[in-house]
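Q: What residues go here?
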């Protein structure tokens, strides 16, 4: 993105640079900017095929913006089923856009977590990690799901990762609770094995 911005300073009317910059904006999840830039590119285009391609991308970006906005509104109003459905629809808009998919999976995972569908939320968080490995915020969120599912060791592992990135009292408390539960489960297991 930054490279295109630099080149555009020298060549503001260069069609190829503008087109690639607009696509770049779309694929890094900056949908509003992408729409604006694509509209500028249409003015530079003399090719009907290119205009059609640009209109297609604008349509996808507008649809993603609309669905993401609806999902956030439903979430804010505690209408989690509707939010989950909308995010599911958003995933079908453009499966090639990994950044958009990561955002959508993350949002839907948060909805599923609120609905107490912890296994499903974990699956979506795993997708976020695959699509956007640089997103380290999922460790804290995933830790809570693991805790609720009594996956205490995985909870502890995710808490450790979260604490490396952004220490918080909540994560520390979750980790301590998971460590205590894990210790208790080992104690029960040990006592049951001794009785046999």
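A:
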């Amino acid at each position: 993105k930054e490279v295109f911005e630099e080149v555009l300073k020298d060549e503001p009317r260069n069609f190829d640079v503008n087109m690639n910059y607009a696509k770049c904006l779309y694929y890094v999840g900056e949908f509003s900017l992408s729409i604006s830039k694509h509209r500028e590119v249409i003015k530079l285009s003399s090719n009907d095929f290119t205009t059609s391609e640009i209109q297609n991308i604008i349509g996808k970006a507008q649809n993603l913006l609309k669905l993401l906005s609806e999902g956030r509104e439903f979430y804010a109003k505690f209408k989690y089923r509707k939010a989950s459905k909308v995010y599911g629809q958003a995933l079908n808009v453009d499966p090639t856009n990994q950044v958009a998919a990561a955002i959508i999976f993350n949002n839907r995972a948060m909805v599923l977590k609120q609905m107490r569908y912890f296994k499903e939320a974990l699956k979506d968080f795993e997708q976020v990690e695959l699509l956007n490995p640089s997103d380290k915020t999922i460790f804290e969120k995933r830790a809570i799901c693991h805790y609720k599912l009594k996956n205490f060791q995985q909870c502890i592992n995710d808490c450790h990762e979260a604490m490396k990135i952004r220490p918080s009292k909540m994560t520390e408390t979750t980790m301590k609770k998971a460590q205590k539960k894990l210790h208790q489960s080992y104690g029960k297991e040990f006592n049951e094995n001794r009785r046999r």
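A: Context that may help when evaluating the design: DSSP finds ten helices and no strands in the chain. The mean pLDDT is 92.
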